Every structure is written in structure tokens, then in C-alpha cells.
Amino acid sequence: MKLSVVRGGGLAGMVTRTELASDKLSAEDAKALHEKVAGAGLLEPHTDAPSPPSHPEDLSYELTVEHEGRTRTVRLRESAMPEEVRSLIEWSDSLPERQMVIEPPGSGRASQ
Amino acid sequence: MHRTDLPLAGSPRRHSHACCFIAPPDLLARLAESDRPEQREAAIRTLAASASVRTQRSLVTLVMRQLDVDVGALAFMAPPAGERRTVYDVQHGGRSALPGRKVRGEGDPPSGDEAVNEAYDGADKVYDFYKEIFDRDSIDGAGLELVSSVHYGSGFDNAFWNGAQMVYGDGSGHLFVEGGLTKALDVIGHEMTHGVTQYTAGLRYGSQPGALNESMSDVFGSLVKQYSLGQSAEEADWLIGEGTLVPQLGKALRSMKEPGTAYQGDPQPGHMDDYVELPDDNDPRNDNGGVHINSGIPNRAFYLAATAMGGSAWEKAGRVWYATLTDRLRPDSDFGSAARATVEVARDLFSSGAEQEAVEKAWRDVGVLS
Hints:
The structure holds 2 protein chains of 2 kinds. Chain A has a 5-stranded antiparallel beta sheet, covered by helices on one side. The model of chain A has no long low-confidence stretch (mean pLDDT about 90). Chain A has helices at about 25-40, 85-95; strands at about 1-10, 15-20, 60-65, 70-75, 100-105. Helices cover about 20% and strands about 30% of the residues of chain A. In chain A, helix 1 packs antiparallel against helix 2 (about 85-95). Chain A has one domain (about 1-105). By secondary structure, chain B is of the alpha/beta class. Chain B has 3 domains: about 1-75, no CATH class; about 85-185, Roll (Elastase, domain 1); about 205-365, Neutral Protease Domain 2 (Neutral Protease, domain 2). In chain B, a hairpin with a 4-residue loop joins strand 6 (about 160) and strand 7. The termini of chain B are far apart.
């Protein structure tokens, strides 16, 4: 399983991408990743609703989960983030295996 | 949390596109439905007791008007006289935990937590700047209590004004230096100025109006810093958030003097020829249509106008920009209309003509006016 989180629209004006791959984790952490991703509903199909920022510097997130040959992507604003997703992101951020890069703005695939 | 477009207190033409408030929905629903005066009064008293709602009394006042409740009954919701600043520790919680545990109220001695003290002192300096230079009484112009919450989230690389209060993350140490967000006075001023914009022009947070919104926050954030240091426009470094990024990323978040030079890969343009067209959508890569990117253009215009006029930047250029923000701009104002407004304001405020000329030239130099 791979979890990617792209963040942008905050005070820094930067776009960051973080990635966490279960094959780089201990068995315990890999299991926890799967459980937290499933618990956050990120393995379910869904439709993104358009959501303008609630306030200035309202961070935008794009979470992508790759698992067993399937990819699911969801976009959220920080102001509307469910606690299970917040908890997943904070846990993922705490792991030393998590990789982060800064991306230029506007890059990546076209808006969907 | 509810989000709705509400007219703001004051002039009916002022309008905030995106404004959010936290209120117990069941209480408001009971209030709306009850035809018994004692129940409505009880709901009002309960609302007033909520610290988080108290800080949003302007918004609550408007909601009450919509519900046809006697707004006079809300008078006792005003904070005690002289209670200007309060700092809370949200203890790494998220938005549902805001504002958090009260740590330092107005007049309280310093806390053992530096982030608390920095947020407290920063709010004071921003308040004093707006009061002393523009005679503005707090963010809403009517003495709004300044609420700040620190330690939001875990290693959260952001700070924001959420429509009612300031919120500061700790920084992860990978993007922002840990503890860095409350140390930068211009960052504090930037966030509080989003509140001023909310109560005045209401610039929509997307595309050009959003870039103007961002620029206004950088302008007045920088002025607060320059004022605190007693600097002239020439002496100022015109950097936003200097020292807040981890050093390997760069020296600052933005440069108003030379957009695009604050850090390696800084995408800010300083001229309309380099305007970055991005969709205003949910994609985090697009920064709501490039609001933190294209703000470089009006930022540089302000820098050019201020240095051309001489003296300290808040004395003349700051006055022109403040009057433009609070009296002229509308939610959908773009760079062109903002530029024309600043030129008119400079003409109206200063009889010599030199100030108007400096403002006009600044906008020509960045390609907004021809």
C-alpha cells in the first residue's frame, strides 16, 4: 500500500508531497497503515464535492492510496477534514520512513 | 461547523464570500423554533457563555438579526472592558478543539510557553499598529477580542485566521522551523490582516481578488514589522516570514522587493508579463488560482510606491493602501481596479500630486497600468 499526500494553499504558498510505502515499514506499522487508511474510508469509492476554502490559508489536501492494483484519490480542505483522516495524516507524518518533497505549484496532472 | 455567506456588520455593501462560525447547532435551532421568551433568553445566555462564540459576536449578532431576535439582548456578550487579547493552547487538537484551554488573558503575566507569549505580544503589536496609525480599533474596527490558539495539530506547517480567531501550528521542522510561526511578527500581522479584509473589502480568496487579499496581508504584515523596528522604507528588508522556513529551503516565504527570490524555486512573479494562470479549484497544486504566487505583483507595486514616496512606508503608501482596502475594494476587485483605486486615493489624500504619480508609476512598472 502506498499513501501519498499533496498539500498546498497554506501560508508558505508551497506545494509539498509526502509518500509512505508499506513495503518500507515494519510489519506492525504496515498493518497500522492499512487499518488507518481503511478506517478513514479511503479505500471506498467516492465523489469529490467542490469545496472552496473556508478561510484564507485553508490548506488543500489530495490523498492518494494505491493498494492491490487500484488507486483512490480524495481532495479535502483542512477545515473540513474528518478526524480519522487527520489522525492518519499525523500518524503518517510522524514516521521516519515518510518522504517529503517540495513541488512547484501548478504541476502534476490536470485538475479533475 | 457551518459555513454561509453572511453580510458583515456595518455597511451593507461589505460582504465576506467565505465566513465560518462555530455555534452549537442545537441551541440555535431551539432559539429559532421557540416561541417562549424564557427559552430564547436561556439559549442566548448559553451562547454568550461560550468563549468561542463570544469572539464571533459580530457574526452571531447577524445570525440573531436573521432570526429576528432582539440584538440588544446580546449587549452583555461583549468581553469585559479592556479584555483585548486571549491566548489558548489547543494542545495539538484540530478544529473541533478550538479555541482550546485558556492560558493567558489580558494583563496576565507571561506564560512558561514561549508560543503563548509570542502570540500574545504579537497580537498586541498588531493591534497597536492599526490603532496608532489608522485609528482602527481591532480587526473589526469595533474592539473585537483578539483570540489566538497555539499548538494546533501536530507539527502543523501553517497558520491561519479562521474567520474568528488566529490559529498557529508548531511547524514540522521539515518546512517551517519548529516554533517559528509565532516568532515572525509579519506572519502574525499577515493573519490578522485577513481578518481586517474580511470585515472590509471581503476580497474573495481565489484568483486575482485572492492574490490581492494575500498581498494586503503581506503589505500590512510587513508594515507592522517595519513599525516595530522604526524602519524607513529604504531600511526595510521587505521579506515576509524571514527565518520561519528551515534554512535549507530558503531565507523567507516571500520578497516584496524582489518577488521570486525568497527561496530556491520561489515562483512569485513581479510583473504581469509573468502572471501565473492557475485554475481556482480544489487541487492543492493550484493554490486557489495562485493567490500566494501572483500576490508578488501587487506586493512589488506597494514596495515601489513606498520607496518612491520616501520616509516610512506606513506614512503615505500605507495610508493609501489602507483607505483602498477599507473604502474602495469589493469582493471581486482585480489588480486593475485596485490600482486605479490607489491612484484615486493618493490624489484625494495628498495635494502635491507627487504621491499620485508615485503610485501610478509603481503600477505601471509592474505592468498592471499602462
